[in-house]
Amino acid sequence: MSSLMKLVQTETRLFVRDPTSLIVGLVLPTLILVGLGAVPMLREPSPDMDGIRFIDYFMPSLIVMSVGVVGLTNLPSIMATYRERGILRRMRTTPMHPGNLLLAQLTVNLGAALAATVLVVATGRIVYGVPLPEHALGFTAAFILGIAAVFSIGMLVAALAPTTRAATGIASMLFMAVMFFGGVYLPRFMLPDAIARIGEYVPPGVQTLLDSWNGEAPAAAQLLAMGATAVVAGVLAARMFKWE
Amino acid sequence: MAFIEVEDLVKHYGSERAVDGVSFTVDEGEIFGILGPNGAGKTTTVECLEGLRTRDSGRVSVTGLDPERDGAELKQVLGIQLQESRLPDRLRVGEALDLYASFYKRPADTDRLIESLGLGGKRKTPFAKLSGGQQQRLSIALALVGNPRIAVLDELTTGLDPQARRDTWDLIEQVRDSGVTIILVTHFMDEAERLCDRLAVIDSGKVVALDTPAGLTARAGDEQRVRFRPSAPFADALLLDLPEVAEVTRTGPQMVVTGRGNLLQAVTSVLARNHIVAADLRVEQVSLEDAFVALTGKPLDN
Prior knowledge:
The structure holds two protein chains of two kinds. By secondary structure, chain A is an all-alpha fold.
């Protein structure tokens, strides 16, 4: 097995062994879906939302959550811990560049975000009959760009934060902002118009997910915003990342 | 060319000269100590040698490789145990060794390594559940897992209890016996005295002495002290007349005689001739610690 594969395998084991990352990262969005689904009113078509069921309307926000939890709480705090504990430094003493550890972490966390998303979408489909995204190509593009934007921001936090505490603190604030604009705390139809408009451009782009879900092509400007965020934050993170 | 050569190494941090013209050579198969107080520039010196830091000037050659130019090649033959480097809490001993072994072209047999470091029963134990001594042994194992020709061990026994320290010392001697050249960075005298074939004493970024532990001690002079409690009073002159004796001091019932040469025999034979019994007799030789104070003008543990 190549050393990189070995690293991915090890980091996967560590992810699975940590009950917090496993529960919060993988199953929390699904638990919330099941909780909401238990309320009969939320399973009925609502006149407030042009006759759409709340549970259908809320699915993109749960995907925002799946991506946000892993990319903004797990990823930056683990990378900052690895720096603080000298794990990256120890790897610098071996023939293996510590950049590979970063790559392995990204792989594992991407896998986790993907798994959390599949779990919540599949549960919605099977248990509550929530339809799958209608515009498959648009949804795929929106999802990939959205996840790239959130993860790049997470890596930028890991690159800049001097300590694990700082990384966790900054990332939690960003996480709450992403949740708020993504309509997780308050459904977006209840948010003021201006905030909902800003939210369309906040990663991972809840509107692009919603539009493609309902069969429309996501707005190019919004997709572009996600792509640009991913590139800018990603390049900054790569340039400013400190190994010790 | 020597196995490891460091010549006129200089490294600044800002305007501070952390390493100020350090030179030494290390021969293959020896345990070479770098000794000095905290902040003397020991760690920076070895980091330049390991390729973890870029030097400002000077020449470094490790088995003919330049750490800055040939970093990748050097890392295949260099095992490094860092001061205060931990592992993820939930990573198990066996997993850590397998993972790090996969980084090297010719890794050691991890099963044998685990056994020889006394971690055989701990293969499935997560890092966080290991004792301080076990964590340190794992750290040494990781430094050895690439089958290195040279191992650099930095502040190896800091924070260990006395038994764990002695066990670690035995282990280092075994490693050397297996043919690995060792550079040992330490601020502990007893450790340097026990393990090192030769020592560089570093203070304020400079090498102030380079010698064997015995050679360093000899430099500080062959002064000795004899302490005892005499069974009967007598005049200081009785001892001061001896050519070996330089000074006699009394504190309460206790006498301290300082001098050179065959001091103990000279003192005891005079006492015996005068029918005085010396109770609680002790001889104090100059230690490496005294040598350090003589060389640098300050104690090691500051």
